[in-house]
């Protein structure tokens, strides 16, 4: 489960800096909770659909986000079946464990610049505080803290579409990680979604992110998690290409068994 959470967050952090028909290649590394992970991700965007292929070791894990259809498909390269999630219902379940009314979120420019993938990126500092419970609606109360620098490229391919996509998806209660991981860490999943909403207000696209995730709270579980430390993920875009992508890429492969999940 720890590796699943870390991999899912990494994949979410690599969500593509574009909408329309765009292919983005990126790399990521992360560590925390006794797990170290290194991945390469290719993200495909077409209209209101997004697909991420994340390679870790000899396995490729795929997630397909169909915002209009309110469906998320998840499958890997080692078995011919795909999990299908009703995201409208799932978003409602996650909301029961997250108090967005007390959330605090800021993304502020820090005056720094750097070149990434041939683009000039402006530095921003992000800070998100999200109250949540672990173990269901009546579980242990904790606060998820997500901080770190972001490097934003303005005028990148698909910027306007990128902003519209994330705004619309977050408004519909979407998350951008594997639902299995989100069930175990609903605060992290919702904080990640809020991060993209905040980034859309910058008028640009994140080409590099460093996310430091910590949990704080009272009780034995909170003390144990604090002792284990938080998680740190860094993701960097390597290339962005435009060009028509086949619609077949945004559905599970033919012959795959579809398993409905709740």
Strand content: over 45%
Largest sheet: 12 strands, mixed
Which word captures the global form? globular
Low-confidence stretches: 1-5, 9-19
Q: What's the β-strand tally?
A: 12
Description:
This protein is α+β, with helices and mostly antiparallel strands and 262 residues long. The protein has one domain (2-261). Helix content is 24%, strand content 47%. The protein contains six helices and twelve strands. A twelve-stranded mixed beta sheet has the order 7-8-9-10-11-1-2-3-4-5-6-12. Helix 3 crosses helix 5. The longest helix has 15 residues, at 186-200. It is globular and about 50 Å long.
List keywords for this structure.
12 strands, alpha+beta, 24% helix, twelve-stranded mixed beta sheet, 47% strand, 262 residues
In brief:
The chain is of the alpha+beta class. The protein contains six helices and twelve strands. The protein has a twelve-stranded mixed sheet.
Topology diagram in text:
Elements: H1 2-13, E1 22-32, E2 35-46, E3 49-56, E4 59-66, E5 71-76, E6 81-86, H2 87-95, E7 104-116, E8 119-134, E9 140-153, H3 159-171, H4 179-184, H5 186-200, E10 205-217, H6 220-228, E11 231-242, E12 257-261
């Amino acid at each position: 489960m720890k590796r699943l959470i870390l991999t899912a967050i990494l994949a979410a952090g690599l969500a593509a800096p574009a909408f329309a028909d765009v292919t983005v290649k990126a790399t990521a590394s992360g560590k925390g909770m006794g797990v170290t992970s290194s991945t390469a991700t290719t993200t495909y965007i077409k209209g209101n659909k997004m697909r991420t292929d994340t390679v870790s070791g000899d396995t490729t894990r795929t997630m397909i986000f169909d915002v209009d259809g309110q469906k998320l498909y998840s499958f890997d390269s080692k078995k011919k079946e795909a999990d299908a999630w009703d995201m409208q219902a799932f978003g409602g379940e996650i909301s029961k464990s997250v108090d967005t009314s007390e959330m605090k979120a800021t993304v502020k420019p820090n005056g720094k610049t750097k070149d990434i993938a041939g683009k000039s990126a402006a530095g921003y500092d992000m800070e998100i505080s999200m109250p949540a419970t672990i173990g269901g609606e009546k579980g242990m109360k904790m606060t998820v803290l997500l901080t770190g620098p972001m490097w934003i490229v303005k005028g990148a391919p698909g910027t306007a579409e990128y902003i519209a996509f994330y705004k619309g998806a977050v408004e519909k209660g979407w998350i951008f990680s594997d639902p299995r991981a989100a069930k175990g860490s609903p605060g992290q999943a919702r904080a990640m979604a809020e991060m993209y909403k905040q980034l859309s207000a910058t008028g640009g696209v994140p080409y590099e992110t460093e996310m430091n995730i910590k949990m704080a709270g009272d009780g034995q579980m909170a003390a144990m998690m604090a002792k284990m430390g938080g998680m740190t993920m860094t993701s960097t875009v390597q290339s962005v290409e435009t060009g028509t992508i086949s619609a077949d890429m945004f559905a599970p492969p033919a012959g795959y068994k579809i398993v409905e999940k709740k």
